[in-house]
Fold these 4 entries.
Entry 1:
Amino acid sequence: MAAKAPLLLRDSEIENDIRAMASPVLRAAGLEPGNMGIYLIGDSQLNSFVAGGQAIFINTGLILRAETPNQLIGVIAHETGHITGGHVLRTKEAMRNASIESIIAMVVAAAASVVGRSGAPMLGASGVAERSFLLFSTAQEATADHAALNFLDRSCQSARGLLKFFEILQTSELLSGDRQDAWVRTHPLTQQRVQYMRDHVAQARCSNAPDPPGSAELLQRVKGKLHAFLDEPSKTLAAYPESDRSPLARYARAIAYYRTPKLDRALPEIDGLIRDFPNDPYYRELKGQMLFENGRVRDAIRPYEDAVKLAPAAALLRVSLSQVYIESGEPALNKRAIAYLNDASRSEGRDSQVWRLLAIAYGRDNQLGMAALSLAEEALANGKKKDAINSPIAPSKRWPRTPRLISAPRTSTTRRSISTSDPAAAAFPTGAQNAV
């Protein structure tokens, strides 16, 4: 059976929440949290990796398996150790400027090639570089461990979470081939590494430090939102019955009703949350998404605009609002979309969807030269340099005047590389479902 293409899941709220939890560790490493890309991969396996400079990719399976923020923070500390150690850049310099989709595709292919033991490699000779890119040496792993412990100590956070994660993976390492968790196959785990971690926990001054204030609530909300989008709506509604009036339960029910779809049930839930928590941008984002996906484009503008006002630094929110502006068909709003997308491209320039929307907006504004340039940028973001050089065609000739923007704006959670025949295809709202 052919392997499924990897899923890139974009969610402004979840990415920002994880970045907030990891900020003390990132600062201890001398990195600016705002410059660190956090990307979610829709995969149930326990795995994470770094690539392309300051970018950490985390499987949803790892996030959902984390019992405490400390466990997730410990894994991020380890991956940060790979970044500060320059391991990825030394093994594959070309990944620095690779697109998000190209990175994910390469990592998935490389992971398949290092199944080892009972699994035969899935890449031929041409895959040697990819395997080298993904497979860290034992020495690099030890260096990343040491760095992670240093970052945790300097931010006075416990290493118990990372130790717990190692112990979980140690069980997986006893399995063979594709039964192992991907992290074990690409991050060689030894008994010496686990013992080194135990010895450190036994003597470190912050080993009993509690989770940072508010981090447990952030992780709970992240996991609740992921479950609400990934699980069947009926399962979510059973987990969060109407009798549960907690904000998380109301949020999860709003998502479940929206996915059912029962807009008459979803809107009252989200409106109640907006009323009770008027400064939360993500409730307004979800309302805008609900309305947009149900054809109420004009009604979706206000909640998206409010979300952007509340979270002006969230580039993905501006991208989503821009898509709604474009779909409104109003020239003045289309010009706003161009401004927002150009601004968002500064931090999301690797994402081809930004350039695709810019090309459409420029085409509708009759700026054909800028539209062609945006098409070239889209091709570069997709790793298609030849197309970027040889494709000066304006988007008005490439797409119909009302392009088929698949079901949803870029926000809340966007998925890619899933066909509608996949039973999980309705789990996340979709932006452009480009094959990786």
Entry 2:
Amino acid sequence: MSILGEDWLSEDCKIQDTQNVLPVDKFVLLVLESARIEVAVLLNELAYLKYESSKTSETDEAISQKQRNLAILFSLIERIVKMISNASSSEGAPNQTICESTIMQAITGLNETISLVLDFLQDAKDHGQRKGDDLLAAARIVGSYLAEAPYACKEKTKNLLDFIFSIEGQDESRPFYSICFMLPMLSQITMEPDGCRTLASFCGYKAVMDCLVKMTEQDGIDNGSMFLACDTIINFMSNRKSVHIPVDSCFIRLLKALVTWAGTSNASSVTMTASCLCSMLIDLTSEEFLLSCSEFDAKTLGSLSELIVRSLQQDVPDDDGEQFNQKQVIVSGYRRWADRFPHVKNVVDKHVSV
């Protein structure tokens, strides 16, 4: 599938050494069920070797081999998830149409497998283990599936989200990728107050903010992940009546990161998204307070002012509903906090009539 793409599964399969052809629906289910069985077996064996068996060099080698095999199976299932998503939404151009009953069978099977993966993560949590590439791979497959079905395994996911946020790969010094894997799901569930409360229950929004800040510190910013992180925080901020959000160093680092990100691109989507979130953040504080913080200086305030001006000057296409809504947030926010930010107000008044 890495070579031929997901649509390879959407073709009738010719059985070797015979003239028989396996219909596409049976072929999809055969591949998926084979992978699901292998994953279930490997998860059980890994849990036993890691937490119950005696530790020897042979055990360590067996664990490493099973972790490699599990990663391969997770990759296969991740591609099947993408193929099922495309088929159910009629995206892509598969050579054969997968019938609805096959899609529903596949979704049922995927739900069961993701539930088993979450049980594997629960086992790791119970044993105080949060570092390892197998745990990170488990977080990735969970995130990939929840990106397409954000409310699947809702209770298990809710109870494990704080642990997933703490997972580190073997070469990571602090959690990052595990949070990135959850962003597609988070950007969807935070559209509802309940999702925001879940994130607030363990201060997960701060982890998302720190993750966003780290993205801007890397070579080659991944705009796709940046947008997902911003959407999550914007949704969270929009529902802030249901949660308390303190203004602290985490917020200041985020402000600086957003200004930095906006300075790396001329894309209107970057300008509007960064400015929208900045406008929401500074509505919680004042210019005087920010300048009293050692991490925030007059230069950053100047860059922030320029970003607000650029967004207010931005011509928004009539058919771009998202940017239109973002501009409304920026304008309404500016009218509320302008008097608390005299420097920003002075710069804006010179260039734009609000």
Entry 3:
Amino acid sequence: MIRVIGVVLAGTAAAVVVVPRVAPPDVRPTQKTPDCTTAGCHTKQVSHKVMHGPAAVGACDACHDYADPAAHTFTMKREGADQCEFCHIDKTGREGPVVHHPVANGRCTDCHDPHGGPTKTLLKAETERGLCLTCHAKTAEGKHVHGPVALDCTPCHTAHTSDFPKLLSMERQALCLSCHQQVAEEVGTFKHPHAPAAKDCLQCHNPHSSDQPMVLTAPAAELCTTCHQAVSEAAKNSSHPHSAATSGKACLNCHTAHGSDRAHLMRGSTVSACLECHKLPIKLEGRTVAGVPEIGVEANFKHGPIRQDDCTGCHDVHGGGHAKLLVEPFSPKFSMPFKQEDYALCFKCHDKGLVSKAAGAKPTGFRDGDRNLHWVHVVNPANGRSCRSCHALHASHNEMHLADTVPYGQWSLPINFKQTETGGSCAPGCHTPQSYSRTSPGPAATPPAAVGVDGAGAPPSR
């Protein structure tokens, strides 16, 4: 049976164009048809936004062969990937040593629709990311998703084959740094690069998603302590923990993660890092930690460790076994009988001769002639004065960081020190005015008395 579908005029002759009549789409054809969609059959295969070339021009026989026209059955001209690779000779799976699993197994149609699709690569999903997630859904389940994963997997991965593991488009570390150029600068130019950042970002970061900010593989403090275990022990198990090491951003409160020009990957100077919290008093349950804004004043005379930007000279900054995070004991008392162990912190740096010799040698400028006035004050057997009785512990606008006043209970006890070329004088709240000279000594003064101070070295109760 035939039907006339048109007339083409050629000069004075007319040629009748005929084609076999095609059964309607609900009737299975019993003979060969020149066009698989003439009667509305297979419209789904040709209704894609982007069509595969053969399907677009109705060349179904590029891929299909009739097996039995009467039964309207077909076979593929080639099996599996051979069918695709007959035309797509650049996608044979031989471009690299690492091959995507569907490609390696000849399953091109796991990802591609052979007739058409919504993208120019004929994917079976609206986007490349959507297609990838049909198998790799868990990669994007975290609360924080890496930018490329949120949009498109192909900035990092190739779809078919690669020279690099995980189908990466280049070596893993180079790939990360190709986008994260600030990190590349930090690990490439700073004096102290963080080893994991310089060698392998994935020691700390998940490349796809995480429940942690910055797609970290674990909370910052937990992550850092997988390597820095001694710090972890100090921060968690010390009798005097430092909250800066465990709360908020934890380690990142003070350290940078990738690299720094400062030792220990400090974000800034040690003093500036400490001042971020300790510039003002910190109120805690039952006590207040005094602020130390004086250490940030450039003109002040500073204690040696402060001057060297090293608070760790006196403090265990992650946590320790002594009050105020001190590395050695240092009594909080204003006055007390002298015991060398009470000054273990001071004698880490200072010569013991400052207080152990009454006269003779000259270990200190605080002397009247040859008489050691440190010894007079500190080694007084009845009621010696501690270092904090005269000195500011961190910094002062006076040389030798002498204090203007020192805490004595609720009283700011005045020192009233005045320096001279050969010595000085003081008129403090704890004894009568005295003066001294290294070159013209006066008569020996009476050692400071215990007036107003109880036997424990504490101010009298009020």
Entry 4:
Amino acid sequence: MIATTSSDEKAKKLKALGADVVLNYKSTPNWGEVAREKSPRGEGVDIVVEVGELLYWFTLVKRR
């Protein structure tokens, strides 16, 4: 599971909950690209669960 967050404190919690990769979107502006690179086979993710703003979702799923 790849998770994104806005703070290092939340990142620690996400890792403790089992996230394989945690990206801070404030300190990693190209987090969508990094998430794709860190996904299995570098192809991106199969499912996106968004609980915040849609703007970040569009960053992740923009066309190749």
